[in-house]
Specification:
Four copies of one chain form a homotetramer.
Chain A: E1 4-11, H1 28-42, H2 47-52, E2 55-56, E3 59-66, E4 75-82, E5 89-97, E6 103-112, E7 114-115, H3 126-131
Chain lengths: 133, 133, 133, 133
């Protein structure tokens, strides 16, 4: 059902900090990925099953804005939203909050659909379209 | 109380796989770290608080044996054990199991105690010794 | 001197692939970072010295477009460009090419200047402005 | 020719530091991997070609001892050594030095040979045995 929204919680690992004493900026890409996988699973979808069925979803575009740093051991909430049904592409928007509900990071990823065998673009599978309509 | 044992659950992220189609072997080091932090927290300890109090615990030795591969989206159980009270060092042993309870990986890390200001070895803090005796 | 341009070469590590058999999309953030550090060094600047002098440059914005995948063991060329002199912020643009000179990835990062002690925004250091004017 | 020895240079990335201000201990596993790939390449071998020919070399055992920390922007030398010809397994030993020639880290990885199609153990390929005899 659109707009689609799901919240995921995740604790910052020590390995994810850098010498600035905060989460290294590239690691949020992992958090986004974990959050959208979790959002699909919570709604009966499974990216793992999708790949097993021969469809891959490579990321074709990514954007991140950094407002405040996350720190080691912070329990983060990642809100994943989908506003538009999947067409040739599917866009996820993310918002990362800390326990004080401060907005730390916002961003998005746009994914394409690809036939795993041919590595060519393909249409979104019915199962996934069903999640978002 | 010794022997100390704690179980942590953690789901494999896509980013943690490699082109063999399994978890890249170096990522288990992160899983060990997340597991021992969680084990301390569950028992009233906090590595974050420890660092804030001026004590760091660098890893001085690490060993891993790989029995079977973990895969994307697997829900792993990491069992963390401590058999000996902390002296100049503290050793954690780990066992990683999948949902079918197959043993995938075993390993250990030995950590030292270091004064964060001087970067010199120091004695284990009382709070931590209390957890393991 | 503007426009500033520098090329860095870097070989893809096995650890950087994922189960799609290509470089995991988040790792390009590391490549961008390595490339801009290298670009500064080649022009007499040093991010390490900058931090040692009390100035940090957190990333405040990041964007990536993925055109074709990089693969394990590829020798990549990362072209780093700066078009505008540093003001409150400094933007780096990147272009990643493979050995066949195909454009794989384009992106940018915008960095701010921060006083390491106060963690407050500060003006770009003279040494850095000198590199880009 | 045994004993086999090769040196690789590699610069520490910012992303590889942690909030202790040094290289996060798990990242040395990546350095080891990059070093052994480079050692093979320099001697006419190619892990990429090996995988393309249907043989994978999963890591089955890993050990690391940490003597002194590496820091951001350090130019590291990783010495890779092989003392025994490949049998069912192949062991690489590593030594990591900084620019002052201080020994920072020592370690080893033991790799097995696996048929990529069946995922069963297999004999080391002739091309690889030729490198080490």
């Amino acid at each position: 059902m659109l707009p689609f929204e799901h919240s995921t919680q995740l604790r910052v690992r020590y390995a994810e900090t850098d010498q600035m004493g905060v989460v290294w900026h590239g690691h949020y890409v992992q958090y986004f990925e974990a959050a959208r996988t979790d959002a699909l699973r919570a709604n009966g979808g499974s990216y793992r099953a999708l790949e097993a069925s021969g469809i891959m979803m490579p990321v074709v575009e990514l954007g991140i804005s950094y407002h405040k740093p996350a720190r080691y051991d912070d329990l983060l909430t990642i809100v994943t939203r989908v506003a538009e049904p999947p067409g040739a592409r599917l866009r996820f928007d993310y918002e990362i909050l800390n326990e004080a509900r401060e907005q730390l990071v916002t961003g998005y990823t746009t994914l394409a659909f690809m036939d795993a065998a041919t590595r060519r673009p393909c249409r979104p599978p019915h199962s996934l379209r069903a999640l978002f309509t």
